[in-house]
Design brief:
alpha+beta, three-stranded mixed β-sheet, 2 domains, elongated, Ribosomal Protein S8, Chain: A, domain 1, three-stranded antiparallel β-sheet, GMP Synthetase, Chain A, domain 3
């Protein structure tokens, strides 16, 4: 599969050069951000943005990243945790919160996601359980699922830990932000880079914009907390060079 690497003063300029080299429209290529542009001291020794563009079939650009983000998180199995496993998960979460000095009530209910059970935490100390952008909540959820899975009690189901409907509020906020910034991308023709996010949050952004033909999304960086780039589907507003 043919690919080219191009540089520019910005990511969208590098993308435009790659499109011109390949003589294709933006929706025909897969874009990989190799380096972002940086400015050196007093404008000297700066670094240009560099991208790799690879020809691909005409498919939705967000779909590959949605699949990738889904694989970064625990899979959503078809079966729901057995009642005994849900009770065990609740007891484990109570024990962990107890060690953290947090006293909360934990209710068990069936989740909206297929094959999931929600441990809904509430109480005066519940705010401490969330953490910055839900990082503490994600860590607790990961620990509970690993412990249940290690003991062979999950039955193939997934445990979701939530606090005062934080998950729903976070999803709505991310969807609104993604759509607002997508309008900025369409108005300016420039790439917008979001702050580093967890796989769960990145997947929400990808899904929120996957039906928008004017904007594509791409995860960029290494590790769990990567960034999402919102990219104009027309290659940053630049016409390919002929």
């Amino acid at each position: 599969m043919r690919s080219v690497e191009c540089e520019g003063e910005s990511i969208d300029e590098a993308i435009a050069k790659a499109l011109g080299t390949l003589q294709v429209e933006r929706d025909r290529v897969e874009i990989e951000i190799l380096t972002d542009a940086t400015r050196g001291l007093f404008g000297f020794r700066g670094r240009k943005a560099r991208v790799r563009a690879t020809l691909r079939p005409q498919v939705g650009a967000a779909s590959a990243d949605v699949s990738r983000e889904a694989s970064d998180t625990t899979s959503e199995p078809a079966s729901t945790p057995a009642p005994a496993a849900a009770a065990r998960a609740r007891a484990l979460l109570e024990e962990i919160l107890g060690h953290l000095g947090v006293s909360c009530a934990i209710a068990v209910r069936e989740g909206d996601e297929p094959g999931s059970t929600v441990l809904a935490v509430s109480g005066e100390g519940s705010g401490l359980v969330i953490g910055r952008h839900g990082q503490t909540l994600d860590a607790l959820e990961y620990m509970v699922n690993r412990l249940i899975g290690r003991d062979g009690e999950s039955g193939g189901g997934r445990i979701i830990v939530d606090v005062e409907s934080y998950r729903d509020r976070r999803r709505e906020a991310l969807e609104q932000m993604a759509k607002r910034l997508a309008e900025k991308v369409k108005a300016t023709g420039k790439v917008v880079s979001l702050s580093p996010m967890s796989p769960r949050d990145r997947r929400i952004v990808h899904l929120a914009l996957q039906e928008d033909p004017a904007v594509t999304t791409r995860s960029h960086g290494d590790g769990q907390y990567r960034k999402v780039l919102l990219i104009p589907a027309t290659g940053g507003g630049h016409r390919p060079a002929r």
